[in-house]
Amino acid sequence: MKNLLQTLESHKLYNGRMIGWSKSEYRRQHPDNEVIFNANLVSKDGKQWYGDVDLTLDSETLQKVSNESGETFLILREMDCRFDTENDSFEELEKKAVKTFTPEKQ
After folding, report:
1. Quick check: 1 pLDDT over 80?
2. pLDDT for 38
3. Residue ranges per structural domain of the chain
4. CA distance 42 to 47
C-alpha cells in the first residue's frame, strides 16, 4: 500500500499545490465553492501536505486518497496548523478541522 503522500501525488495533489494565481479571482470564479487556500493536511503521524484545496471539487478525490492509503486525515486552515502546533494532539487538531476524511469500509 502507498503511503499518504504518495497517494496524494498519484491523484495530482502535489505539495504546495496552487489552484489559482489570484485568490480573489478564484473566489470570484467559484463563489459557491468551499475553498481553503494554504490548507494543511494532517494525519495521526503529523503534518503531511500543504496547498490549496477546493473542497467542493476535491472532496471526492480526497476521499479516494483516504480509502487507498487507509489513513484518516484532517484538512485545516493555514493558521490552525501552521505555527506552534507541533505539540498539538491529533484530537486537538480535529476540533479545528474544516473536514475529516476517514477510509470507507469496502
Report:
1. no
2. 94
3. 4-101
4. 4
Residues in the chain: 106
Identify any residues that bridge with 49 across adjacent strands, giving them in sequence order. Answer: 41
Rounded to whole angstroms, what are the CA distances from 11 to 4, 6, 38, 42, 63? 11, 9, 18, 17, 11
Cell numbers placing 13 = 495533489
Cα torsion through 53, 57, 66, 86, rounded to 10: 10
- 23 near 38, Cβ under 8 Å? no
pLDDT digits (tens, 9 = 90+) for 33-84: 999 999 999 999 888 899 999 999 999 999 999 999 999 999 999 988 876 6
Contacts of 5 (CB under 8 A, 6+ apart): 15, 48, 49
Cα(37)–Cα(67) distance, integer angstroms: 24
Label residue 87 by pLDDT band (50, 70, 90). confident
